[in-house]
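Exercise 7b. Backbone tokens:
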């Protein structure tokens, strides 16, 4: 984690680490400090993403952000703190949205939280109170095509999907029409020698008709190793594929 801390600091994000201790968030365990900072591996990833949001001005306070696969809402909590009036939309499984609601409701009890059973009633995001948080189930994915969404993000899960599901996302209107896309995914989901996921989605499958604004190797979590079996031999290894980080912007 020290490497991840140094990477964030090298991008002038040290203040974000100091101002957002992980042990002050709802449900957090008081982990030992790492070089004087209250962080976890996942929390550092979220801080890195937040720093990229600010560094490249990916979101403004009057805009709407959709995140595909939000888990428990940790990144959303950080982004809302820095962009309090932005509309935040989370698309995920129902049980993950429940996690997010429990977490974000504690952090922002006075915000307008719109639960899945109310999503179908929304006609225009501009009609919502500033800073509204929307919890959208996967079954309502097509409803998002009706909204004016400025930035869409996905971190890790697109490359873990079935190909048909992956293609449905990339063909959706909300991805085609948004101003900015920010993805972090595997270069190759299933290398031939270690087929981690069912479908071998790779970087060449991300056919996006927008200009590439930023591209690089995702620098966080390079230290991660796991004891796993590859070609009948179990040993400590890195993931079978590293990750790319890319930002597209509509010209």
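Sequence design result:
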């Amino acid at each position: 984690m020290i490497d991840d801390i140094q990477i964030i600091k090298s991008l002038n994000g040290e203040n974000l680490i100091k101002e957002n201790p992980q042990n002050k968030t709802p449900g957090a365990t008081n982990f030992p400090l790492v070089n004087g900072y209250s962080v976890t591996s996942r929390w550092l990833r979220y801080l890195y993403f937040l720093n990229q949001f600010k560094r490249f001005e990916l979101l403004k306070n009057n805009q709407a952000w959709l995140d595909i696969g939000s888990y428990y809402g940790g990144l959303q909590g950080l982004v809302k703190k820095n962009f309090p009036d932005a509309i935040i939309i989370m698309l995920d499984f129902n049980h993950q949205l429940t996690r997010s609601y429990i977490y974000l409701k504690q952090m922002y009890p006075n915000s307008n939280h719109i639960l899945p059973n109310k999503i179908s009633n929304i006609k225009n995001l501009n009609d919502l109170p500033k800073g509204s948080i929307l919890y959208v189930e996967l079954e309502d994915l097509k409803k998002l095509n009706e909204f004016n969404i400025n930035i869409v993000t996905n971190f890790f899960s697109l490359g873990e999907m079935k190909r048909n599901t992956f293609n449905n996302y990339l063909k959706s209107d909300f991805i085609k029409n948004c101003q900015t896309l920010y993805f972090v995914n595997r270069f190759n989901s299933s290398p031939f020698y270690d087929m981690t996921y069912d479908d071998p989605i790779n970087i060449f499958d991300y056919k996006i008709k927008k200009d590439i604004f930023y591209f690089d190797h995702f620098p966080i979590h390079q230290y991660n190793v796991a004891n796993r079996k590859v070609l009948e031999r179990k040993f400590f290894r890195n993931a079978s594929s590293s990750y790319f980080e890319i930002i597209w912007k509509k010209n």
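Instructor comment: The chain has one domain: 2-249. Residues 69 and 157 are 7 Å apart (CA to CA).
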